[in-house]
Amino acid sequence: MSRSVLVTGGNRGIGLAIARAFADAGDKVAITYRSGEPPAGFLAVKCDITDTEQVEQAYKEIEDAHGPVEVLVANAGITKDQLLMRMSEEDFTSVIDTNLTGTFRVVKRANRGMLRAKKGRVVLISSVVGLYGGPGQANYAASKAALVGFARSLARELGSRNLTFNVVAPGFVDTDMTKVLTDEQRANIVSQVPLGRYAQPEEVAAAVRFLASDDASYITGAVIPVDGGLGMGH
Hints:
Blueprint: E1 4-8, H1 13-24, E2 28-33, E3 43-46, H2 52-66, E4 71-74, H3 89-117, E5 120-125, H4 128-132, H5 138-158, E6 163-170, H6 176-179, H7 183-191, H8 201-211, E7 223-226
Parallel strand pairs: 1-2, 1-4, 2-3, 4-5, 5-6, 6-7
């Protein structure tokens, strides 16, 4: 049965691959984007998740077109990498506001319809960096690590209402963001990955779609790494 699915930051990279995976399965997919031209084939809603009013308006538009959101994938995020001694307070707080507080905003709003329906699937996109750490990424790693505690708290709080909350933690993924790295940088990254390659966005999307499927109905509070073994043990 076709479900109402929302993927935040679904206009490129991992988010777009996730949106396509759900659309290919026959779901009604909405995406949010902050800038640029959105891809065709989805209900695309311009929304900055750091603005509560924009989040509310986006949900109203999606609900009018597709009904209450049944599957939420909180993927939107930013990076502002900088060494700690050079990191400004704005560098830190803006990343937290988007990656963590922005996720809080979209999850809280989705739960309104999910609680009424007494069912729902929420998948948060974290990162291996949130578990493993990364030099110059204290802000990003803190925001992504926090998603684990957020998801597990909600898994305990709302599990009795048939809502699941899980986290997918991708490693290095072959996207436009990583294509700008030099050959030397890419080789250095791959040398740390046991499987010896980058992930494809579709491999992350497959894990997300699984967590939203009937086959995963008894999985909640889990952190699923899709990182080629880079962060194992963390």
